[in-house]
Amino acid sequence: MMLRGGLIAVLAALTLSALVVSCGGSGGSGSGSGSIGGSSDPGAAVAACEARLPQLNTTGLASNEASIVVDKGPCAYNTSTGTASTIGSVNIAFTSVTVCIPGTSTCQTIDHIMVDTGSSGLRIMSSTLNSNMSLPPVTNAGEPLIECGQFADGYTWGSVRTANVSIGGPPNASGFFTGETANNVNVQVIGDASAYTTPGACSGTGNALNDVASFGANGILGVGLFVNDCSTTTACIEADLLSPLYYECTANSGCASYDAAVTQQVSNPVASFAADNTGEVMNLPAVTVASGEQNVYGTLVFLDVSAGTTDISTSPTQIYFADGYGDFYSAITSANDGYTATATICSNSFIDSGSNGFFIPTSSVNIPFDPNPTPNIGWFTPSGTVNLTAGISSANTTTIPGTPQTTIAFSIANADTVLFPANGGANTAFNNLGGPSGGTCDTTVSGSQPANTSTTGIDWGLPFFFGRPIYVALETTQLTVSPNTYFGPFWAF
Amino acid sequence: MNISRLLSTLPAWRPVLLRRTSSHRPRSPLVSDHALFAATLALGAMAALTAVPARATLGEDVKTVEVDRQQVRAAAQVRTLSKFTVHDLQSPGGAIVHEYISPAGVVFGVSWGGRSLPNLRQLLGAHFDTFTSSPNRQEGGRGHLVVREGKLFVESSGHMRSFHGRAYLTDALPTGVSVDDIK
């Protein structure tokens, strides 16, 4: 998402209908396939893009395993290559999902769905859905519920609908995945609510991410720590929020904020699987080349964490509890190469496959960054490669308040050297990219830190996942490793 | 101050105009209890007030802050520090907005934390369009956004259920105040 230019947006807009067809199919399966529409130059660009895209590695997968790939992203986003502004995605992992209308055999597989451990629920771009994929809307008193889905980089405006969502295993002869299925789960269809004016409260949160070109993906699969995107135990109460998430809309009077009930919110499909429904482990191989790799393949393996796994049960000290907001503690404890770490406790830190770098508060380390739009705005640009250490601990640490329990070692390279123009911008997977974020951390914390402070956190993005399998245990997890029981939400690695 | 002013106007008419109540269609069970909180202070509600003319916050004069602070009830606090003043607005659910006021009476920074994003059009006022349109931005996937455009810095971080960020004007920082003072 950090590298895109106006050219991409223009191409995407011109070719959106063609892209629906050409980019909607699952990699390798032929599902949703069709000829690329038209013979215009944008169509040719899309065709060239399609030829460049790697396919998922689905051969031999177990039913609870989904293939993931780090590549340049869907063709609406990366039809051009070769300049910094058009090289497409960096450090974003994609998978494919099959969506069906409940109670029917009408299904579609959609590729380039971003895998996001920072959110909950499947969100799909309406432009990628075939015309026969009319998913039933979630309503209140007959009126549709529309969500203002929110991310740190913008909002998604679209209706809440019900779908059967399947993922995992090799696709069948029709190109549909059947490994794990969540029946009647609420999803968001982004960009399908243009009939209703986006409320100012929603558009006021930032930039619209309502199409593939601005979102950088055909959708997003939120497989985070929580069952629902807002609240799992109560309605999504507007007065608890800084801006509403859910709206009830009518043709005559527009949209009014609405406290969506638990059963009306967009929900993590994992929690609705028949089995393997309390979490997953995201496996990505180590990236060993400083200048990155072109594509990296991994798996997303769905699990019943409560039943125990070999990794976690034999080493429960690997468990890091998140608070009720999905955050834990991190602190930068050292940096070399002449840079200075300040070991304050960043109590709202999080592990997020939907972020594409190590994002660290400026108050924690003083590595310089590229301030200009080109070539690599925002990324750290140290003089050489900086080796850092960080301490991490559970959010509810009370025995040693604020004291990191585990040391993480990682490196930050100069983005101008490794990202672009290195390799002409061909590579998409880097384990050494990061940038400064805002805010400050605390010199002391005691016990469970209230998350509703403006204190910031370290964002452990996708580079954190390379070579480090990350378990995500949903809030519904109860794992007993005698004599202790570990309650989700937590991460383990 | 935009937020406070909006909040102060809420109780009289918001339940009628902005929210569908159980009187004419079913609501989730917690809504009615919740409405009481909303009448006291609802930061979230400010965002829904599209009919109310937006008043800028960042870079504006403190006078509006003071007026509105007095109209907002207990949930607003003012902390007077040696080099600046901070106005804290907190929703019943704990979402928070801090507003940093210089000795000269100018709002030089805002910060926020909560389960959802704030209405930045309200908080940034005249600077919102710069924020959304500036090419000087790093979009680090879904969890990270930094915009640095001239004197305006906006830093947004987090994920669903936990968003944090701040915005400030570098040319409005009081003497001796660091950006790290904006927490």
Biggest sheet descriptor of chain A: 7 strands, mixed
**Rg measurement of chain B, Å:** 17 Å
Biggest interface goes to:
A-B, 89 and 78 residues
Cα shape of chain A: globular
How many β-strand stretches of chain B?
Answer: 8
Helix content, binned percent of chain A: under 10%
Question: Based on helices, strands and strand pairing, what is the structural class of chain B?
Answer: alpha+beta
Overall geometric form of chain B: globular
Q: How would you describe what is shown here?
A:
- The complex is a heterodimer of chains A (493) and B (183).
- Chain A has 493 residues and is mainly beta.
- In chain A, strand 2 (93-100) and strand 3 (107-116) form a beta hairpin.
- In chain A, 10% of the residues lie in helices and 30% in strands.
- The two termini of chain A are 27 Å apart.
- In chain A, the strands form 3 sheets. In chain A, strands 19-18-15-16-21-17-20 form a 7-stranded mixed beta sheet, with no helix packed on it. A 6-stranded mixed beta barrel of chain A has the order 2-3-9-4-8-7. Chain A has a two-stranded antiparallel ribbon with strand order 23-24.
- Mean pLDDT of chain A is 85; it is low at 1-40, 398-403 and 446-452.
- Chain A has 2 domains: 6-272, no CATH class; 306-492, no CATH class.
- Chain B has 183 residues and is an alpha+beta fold.
- Chain B is built from 6 helices and 8 strands, in the order ααααββββααββββ.
- Chain B has helices at residues 2-17, 31-40, 43-48, 62-71, 120-124, 128-133, and strands spanning 76-80, 85-90, 96-101, 107-114, 137-139, 144-149, 152-159, 162-169.
- Chain B has an 8-stranded antiparallel beta sheet with strand order 1-2-3-4-8-7-6-5, covered by helices on one side.
- In chain B, a hairpin with a 2-residue loop joins strand 6 and strand 7 (152-159).
- The longest helix of chain B is centred in the first third of the chain and has 16 residues, at 2-17.
- Chain B is globular.
- Residues 1-56 and 66-74 of chain B have low confidence and may be disordered.
- Chains A and B meet through strand 6, helix 5 and strand 20 of A and helix 2, helix 3, strand 3, strand 4 and helix 5 of B.
